[in-house]
Write a structure and sequence with these properties.
Layout: E1 4-8, E2 24-26, E3 32-38, E4 58-61, H1 65-71, E5 75-76, H2 77-84
Antiparallel strand pairs: 1-3, 1-4, 2-3, 2-5
Length: about 80
Amino acid sequence: MEITTLACPPDMSDPNIDPATAPIWVDAEGNQYMVASGYLDGEYETSDPILAEPDRINAVVGMMGLDALAAMGLVPFEVVLEESE
């Protein structure tokens, strides 16, 4: 089993992402994604292209969580808020 990282738009769902507790990350356009990373149940393949897109559940398999989120072009939502203040 490999580490899997998911980035899920708020209007979609995945059984490995709990909307009540999932951290929120954003892309360069400000689209929000609920994220989860670890040894997740289910069959996932790395999304192509790897950059997160708001019309799908994005996945990266076999890469550490923070590296995978960076490869998807995502940053923590809190960082965006701090920079805009």
